[in-house]
Design goal:
Blueprint: H1 4-20, E1 30-32, E2 39-43, E3 49-54, H2 67-80, H3 95-107, E4 112-116, H4 119-133, E5 138-142, H5 147-155, E6 159-163, H6 168-177, E7 184-189, E8 191-192, E9 197-198, H7 201-211, E10 213-218, H8 233-236, E11 245-249, E12 259-263, H9 265-274, H10 276-279, H11 286-299, H12 303-322, E13 335-338, H13 342-356, E14 358-359, E15 362-363, E16 374-377, H14 385-401
Parallel strand pairs: 3-14, 5-6, 5-7, 7-10, 10-11
Antiparallel strand pairs: 1-2, 2-3, 4-12, 8-9, 11-12, 13-16, 15-16
Helix pairs in contact: 2-11, 3-11, 4-5, 6-7, 13-14
Length: 411
């Protein structure tokens, strides 16, 4: 019979493996300063404080600090208090939740939307529920989809097919190999966050039409930032009407918290009625829903923020490329610099933080494949010339200090 010490030893072994591989993750205790994003204060392990610039946050547009969002949240909390008091079915649906769902449906030009506590839960709950709605369903999933999508597909009990990343020929082969009358869903993303590359939305929609499949598009790294009103890459490409289910987040560009799907009225109603992840979860606090609704509404017309965001990303990529940094550039706002070794990646992250006041979290396996460990920078409209200069100079100095390879510089 196992003893308590046996369990403790197993935990020690599991944690030791992470340390040995350089993959052990630590929390950085930072406090964002209202009105001064991306600047924050880091509390060191010894209790002392140091100013830092956050370069790895997902508050892509700084909306988590915007007065429009904060005013809406203050108004709601003053009016209603803190929590919602229940699940959506049992006392947890308020005017703020309904207002937010209306804003999201309008954003994506869909009949309805359904609010979840996170985009992870929205993906997991929806994808795991679809086979209950469509018996015999086959889900075709891109191999680099979010962990939440993978988990939802894995748990749903239905058939699944994994196609090579953005490989339309492989997807076609898989679709053609299955029964023509089987219900099908193709699940993919608009922007893949580790490399910053785009999914071929139009071509996948064409395949879906050809083989009678539904489309499920994860736009979490695009909503708020792409398209005339911030509805994502599908809107930018004029494809909103061709996507059946859109997944989005309120915790990145919108600066608050929560996730959602946008789809037909019947699809949202069915998921609402069958998904345990929705039915048994306490709804978002009204103040959070109010802040998110204000953010979504504001960004529908805030073209200047989207333009500034893309400009800052282009500037940073150009500056880093000029230093020969091994940068992946697919034209999105995400800036991954490949280090290729977990220990070196963690070392660079620590030195940037300790010596330069620059906070960027190392990205290691299993988030990315071994050998592609990286630092992933997420510039925003408020990362100005001063912040970019400091980052570029620090990266140049540390790359030389660690004797890391650079790309061949053109004359």
């Amino acid at each position: 019979m196992p003893k308590q010490d046996d369990y403790t030893a197993k935990l020690d072994d599991a944690l030791s493996r992470l340390h040995e591989e350089g993959r052990y993750r630590t929390f950085i205790d930072i406090e964002r300063t209202k009105g001064h994003f991306p600047h924050a204060v880091w509390t060191r392990p010894d209790g002392t404080e140091q100013p830092v610039t956050v370069w790895c946050g997902n508050d892509y547009l700084g909306m988590g600090q915007h007065s429009v969002v904060l005013d809406a949240m203050h108004e709601a909390i003053d009016a209603t208090g803190a929590g919602s008091g229940g699940t959506r079915n049992i006392s947890g649906t308020t005017v703020y939740h309904k207002r937010l769902e209306a804003e999201l449906a309008d954003l994506h030009q869909k009949e309805a939307s359904l609010l979840f506590t996170s985009a992870y839960i929205a993906n997991d709950a929806t994808l795991s529920t679809l086979p209950k709605l469509f018996p015999g369903l086959i889900i075709y999933s891109d191999e680099l989809n979010h962990a939440s999508m993978i988990e939802g597909v894995r748990r749903n009990g239905g058939a699944k097919r994994v196609f090579k990343h953005n490989d339309l020929d492989h997807l076609r082969q898989l679709l053609a190999a299955d029964r023509p009358d089987a219900p099908k869903v193709i699940a993919f993303e608009s922007i893949y966050s580790m490399d910053g590359d785009f999914g071929p939305i139009r071509e996948i929609c064409d395949l879906a039409d050809e083989f009678g499949a539904l489309t499920y598009l994860d736009e979490v790294h695009a909503v708020g930032m792409y398209g005339p009103r911030g509805a994502g890459v599908a809107e930018r490409e004029g494809l909103l009407a061709r996507v059946d289910i859109i997944n989005g987040t309120l915790a990145k560009a919108y600066g608050v918290m929560g996730g959602y799907i946008a789809a037909s009225e019947k699809m949202c109603d069915a998921v609402r009625s069958y998904a345990p992840g929705f039915i048994f979860t306490t709804s978002l606090p009204p103040a959070v829903a109010a802040g998110a609704a204000a953010s979504v509404a504001y960004l529908k017309t805030a073209h200047e923020l989207r333009d500034a965001h893309q400009l800052q990303a282009r500037i940073l990529k150009m500056r880093l490329k000029g230093l020969g940094m091994p940068l992946i550039d697919h034209g999105s706002h995400i800036v991954p610099v490949i280090v290729g070794n977990p220990v070196h990646t963690k070392l660079l992250s620590d030195m940037l933080l300790n010596d330069h006041g620059i906070y960027v979290q190392p990205i290691n396996f299993p988030t990315v494949p071994r050998g592609t460990e990286r630092l992933r920078f997420t510039p925003s409209p408020v990362h100005g010339p001063k912040e970019i200069d400091a980052l570029v100079k620090a990266m140049d100095a540390l790359w030389s200090h660690c004797a890391l390879n650079r790309a061949e510089l053109s004359a």
